[in-house]
């Protein structure tokens, strides 16, 4: 069970050029935007990565417009945990639950999840906030993360698990995002 107090969101490489390579661009844009908006409503920290932004572009506008510049870590390694600035920032929050989404599921998301699990984090993959260029690669990445011990979920399940009750003061603003 995850909770607001001990959770952090990680968004991996949801960048302009990577998103345009996807067959289904709108679902990942929407799911990622909902995750980031909800994190802001619930005061959950967010860390974003950008894989080689000079070549792949910046994080999509729907997402980058909602985060502080200091939340964005540039990387060239596939696993974000192999970038010292990312690992240090993540650990500095002292959270044990990581909700993760991003592109590409079978490469950067997968390798980051494996390293997070090795570091002792409880990892929840928001499946609908993940994408790969091919559905086969996407399915393989999800299965590998599940086999490694990550919980496979989706944005709506994660958000309602964090809220716990309709009496939560954040319930209505978060619910409005998913309607």
Explain what you see.
The chain is of the alpha/beta class and 179 residues long. It has one domain: 3-Layer(aba) Sandwich (Rossmann fold). Helix 6 links the parallel strand 4 and strand 5. The longest helix has 18 residues. The protein is globular, with a radius of gyration of 15 Å. The two termini are 24 Å apart.
Number of domains: 1
Q: For the record, what CATH class applies? A: Alpha Beta
Strand content: 15-25%
Strand order of the largest sheet: 3-2-1-4-5-6
CATH domain topology: Rossmann fold
Q: Termini separation (Å)?
A: 24 Å
Along the chain, the helix and strand elements come as: EHHEHHEHEHEHEHH
CATH architect. name: 3-Layer(aba) Sandwich
Residue-averaged pLDDT: 96
Task: Please tally the helical runs, counting DSSP H or I stretches of 4 or more residues.
Answer: 9
Please count the beta strands (DSSP E, at least 2 residues each): 6
The CATH homologous superfamily: Isochorismatase-like
Give the helix proportion (percent range).
Answer: 40-55%
Low-confidence regions: none
Structure, briefly:
With 179 residues, the protein is α/β, with parallel strands linked by helices. The protein is built from nine helices and six strands; from the N terminus they run βααβααβαβαβαβαα. Strand 4, helix 6 and strand 5 form a beta-alpha-beta unit.
């Amino acid at each position: 069970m995850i909770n607001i107090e001990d959770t952090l969101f990680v968004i991996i490489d949801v960048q302009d050029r990577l998103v345009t390579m996807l067959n289904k661009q709108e679902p990942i844009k929407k799911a990622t935007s909902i995750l980031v908006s909800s994190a802001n409503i619930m005061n959950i920290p967010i860390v974003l990565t950008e894989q080689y932004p000079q070549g792949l572009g910046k994080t999509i506008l729907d997402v980058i417009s909602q985060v502080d510049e200091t939340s964005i870590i540039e990387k060239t390694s596939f696993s974000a945990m192999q970038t010292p600035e990312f690992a240090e920032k993540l650990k500095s929050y002292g959270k044990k639950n990581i909700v993760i989404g991003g592109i590409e599921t079978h490469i950067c998301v997968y390798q980051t999840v494996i390293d997070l699990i090795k570091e002792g984090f409880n990892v929840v993959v928001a499946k609908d906030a993940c994408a790969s260029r091919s559905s086969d690669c996407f399915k393989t990445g999800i299965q590998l993360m599940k086999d490694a011990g990550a919980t496979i979920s989706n944005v709506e399940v994660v958000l309602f698990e964090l809220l716990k009750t309709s009496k939560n003061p954040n319930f209505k603003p978060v619910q409005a995002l998913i309607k």
